[in-house]
Amino acid sequence: MIDSSMILKATFEKIIESINIGIFDLLHTGVALFCDKGFFIYCNKSFLKMYNLPESVIGKHITDYFLTGERGVMSSIRTRKMVICSSQTKNNVWGVSFRYPIQDEQGQLRGVVVESIPSNLDKDKLLALLDTVRNLEMKSYSFSEQKEAHKNSGLYTFEAIVGEAPCIENMRCLGRRFAFSQEPILVCGESGTGKELVAQALHMASQRSDRPFVTVNCAALPPELMESELFGYETGAFTGAKVGGVKGKFEMADTGTIFLDEIGELPLPMQAKLLRVLETGEIQKIAHKGQLHSDFRLIGATNRNLAEMVRQGQFREDLYHRLSVFELDIPPLRDRVSDIPLLVRHFVTQSVGDNRQKDIRIDDALYDAFAQYPWRGNVRELKNVLVYALYSLGDDQSVLTVQHLPPRFMRELEAAAVAGTTPDAEDSRQDSQNFSEASARAERKVLWDALVNSRYNKVLAARTLGISRSKLYRKLREHGLLAKFEAQ
Predict the structure, then answer these.
(1) Are strands 326-329 and 185-188 parallel, antiparallel or unpaired?
(2) Sigma-54 factor interaction domain: which residues (predicted)?
């Protein structure tokens, strides 16, 4: 326990020696000061009242009272950057806080000032708002800042994941909540559902969003190289070792996130080593004397049933329980059929860059076929089918129909119909009725997004969409967007 008088004498005076501290008690917003180790050195009355804290917090560590302390104050100390995030006490009081690191004339970190305001939003809306703020922050970086910020601007956010189905909205909601914890997250889902995109979104929604995001495909690592890849090695560790050694993935992920894809493929000996790293945060590099500490957050992903693997002795039970503090399930495409038009329009817009002279339209019969298809490969399979269909279009064609679909798609569709694995007739009729409306909504969204991203420049928007300006105006008129566009 650090004596509060020592903190006040050593740090507090250096930070606010020229400030009349009584001024802070006149403010309605909460203000708190922390030393460079994360200990309280001052709180005004509004801060104490806002979070129901006792005056005895002075000299105590932020994590003694706040569940989010490690992601807020400590993140600001670690990165030396202003941090915006939610604040949650152990008594479940929520607020929004702005954390500002304080440095002296020599650039030495002296502490952190926290300004807090109460949140009138419910928890989910607050987390969604903060996710949007962080997304806008990343978009506002200059090119040089993006390079410096570990090149994370290309990572997905929850906002960028396409889908409006209730199961996807629920996944986003849970994901934003889980992101604020430092505990491991296990992302579960069938092949092709987008587990890596969700892992990226979790990282971007966390307080580590401007820190490294390190990806490891466990299934692609040969067993004999796994330890050196994950933990690194020193000079002379083995024949052929690089002079100077090599950093392992866990060391590279220090202060950031490590994503272990296909984590169920780890062999049992490596599972034991992973468990130790998770429990201690200590890394043992090959041929290194002593251990290295790494401050990382782990996200794992699997398409396997780890609980069943535990029962069969293929996966350690203690590691499974350590990894599955938070499980985030990604729904298969067959459970979110209503999202298919949005996904189709998204992928068509992505791919149309290869042939920008065409205004691609989707035949309703194609949507009907998509509604009947079992989609065992999920969203990845949908994208591949659309790429095939787009390249199958003739030079004089601009409408995607079932004739442009790959032969294997039609064979799978027929086999599913015979096996009775397609949706029942009533569901199919309902899906068919909804698809036209959903497709129109998707096209409207794509049009407006193009306008916003081009700052309402009609030439740039038309070029982005791969259509002429006259066609852009016609589309805007069809969707009732022309007046809104001209008002900008």
Answers:
(1) parallel
(2) 161-391
| Residue 7 buriedness (CB in 10 A; 0-12 / 13-18 / 19+) | buried
Cα end-to-end span (Å), the chain = 59
Which of 374, 362, 342 shows the shortest CA–CA distance to 404? 362
Digit-coded pLDDT (tens) for 229-286: 999 988 777 766 777 788 999 999 999 999 999 999 999 999 999 999 999 989 998 8
- Characterize the bridge pairing of strands 399-400 and 326-329: unpaired
pLDDT at position 147: 42
Q: Which run of H or E residues covers position 208?
A: none
Q: pTM of the entire structure?
A: 0.62
Structure token digits, residue 141: 């970086």
Residue 98, CA distances (Å) to 37, 54, 283, 351, 478 in order:
18, 21, 33, 40, 44
Token digits for 423? 């949706």
Contact 338, 164 (CB under 8 A): yes
For residue 1, the number of C-alpha atoms closer than 13 Å in the C-beta half-sphere is 8
3-state SS, residue 95: strand
pLDDT in tens, 63-79: 888 876 555 676 666 66
Confirm if 140 and 50 have CB atoms less than 8 A apart.
Answer: no
**Domains of the chain by range and CATH?**
15-124 (3.30.450.20), 158-329 (3.40.50.300), 338-405 (1.10.8.60), 441-487 (1.10.10)
DSSP 347-383: HHHHHGGGSTT---EE-HHHHHHHHH---TTHHHHHH
Q: Which amino acid is at 202?
A: L
Tokens read off for 42: 């001052």
Say how far apart CA 405 and CA 385 lie, in whole Å.
Answer: 7
Query: What beta strand segments (E) does 231-279 contain?
Result: 232-233, 246-247, 257-261
Q: Which residue has the higher pLDDT, 418 or 369?
A: 369
